[in-house]
Amino acid sequence: MGQGLWRVVRNQQLQQQYSEQCFLQRDRERGRRAGPPLAEPLQQRRTPQCQVSGTDISHLLRVRKGKEEQGFIDLEMLPPELSITILSYLDATDLCLASCVWQDLGNDEYLWQGLCKSTWGHCSIYNRRLPSGFSYRKLYMELDEGSLTFNANPQEGVSYFMSRGILVDHPKEIAKFIFYTRMLNWKMLRIYLDERRDVLDELVTLHNFSNQFLPNALRDFFRHIHAPEERGEYLETLITKFSHRFCACNPTLVQEVGLSPDAVYVLCYSLILLSIDLTSPHVKNKMSKREFIRNTRRAAQNISEDFVGHLYDNIYLIGHVAA
């Protein structure tokens, strides 16, 4: 529960320092105008004008000192908007712990809805009319359970989501769920996509490679759909689908540079091989830029030498396309 509550305590310290500075500045100004200040009872001093209007948060922060000097303040004493903002910095585990202290705040549906949608960006249930008594906290637990099930057995995980009404049995809905989720194990995801090519097709169409340089687009593609460790039919399928999607997103570049799906296919393999050559510690004699240009233009003769040279520079400076 660290970050959010720490910020509140830090806010108390800053406001106290700010108030002390205002007192000192006011006293110095009075001293310059009227000479040595007369003795003034402490209780007659007025509150400086620098205090924040509205709820006196500094006062609320000091109330708890009489009871528990070392503890945090009671969030229920703060305005609800401020309490919710503080708790929004917590993850699910810490929010469950917070609900043991502040039951109403910790079980707030707004907080659990934010956790669900920030972790699983798309679910079919988000777009349906929710029944009365629906709980986003319960939904979070089901999404977490389904993700763990998927990471053990992809087919059972997807079946779990469908049985709970979280996902609709449609390739596009499953592809969106995968695209906007980072909780799924990439090895299990690769197995699932290898078996469900219809979902893979929909997943590829979700990528937008417009105005992206080819190596950067390939990195973005492999960030969502991890490349297999060995060359095979699945890797060829991925590169083929990527090549067609890249050309569809960049029609102007296709005309200016002379790219085609076949040419992009060749360039992708060249980039993968170059990435291995430049980044592997086992390769002692690294491929030079001139060698890369010569070898690549043998397979893709319509591509200009400058364009191929820029491809080499990108891999040399940024690194592997499938890391």
UniProtKB/TrEMBL annotation:
SMART domains: Sec7 (SM00222). CDD domains: F-box_FBXO8, Sec7. One of its GO terms (biological process) is regulation of ARF protein signal transduction. GO terms for molecular function: guanyl-nucleotide exchange factor activity. SUPFAM superfamilies: F-box domain, Sec7 domain. InterPro entries: F-box-like_dom_sf, F-box_dom, FBXO8_F-box, Sec7_C_sf, Sec7_dom, Sec7_dom_sf. It comes from the Eukaryota. Residues 72-115 form the F-box domain. Residues 132-318 form the SEC7 domain. It holds the Pfam family Sec7. This is F-box protein 8. It comes from Cyprinus carpio (Common carp). The gene is LOC109059098.
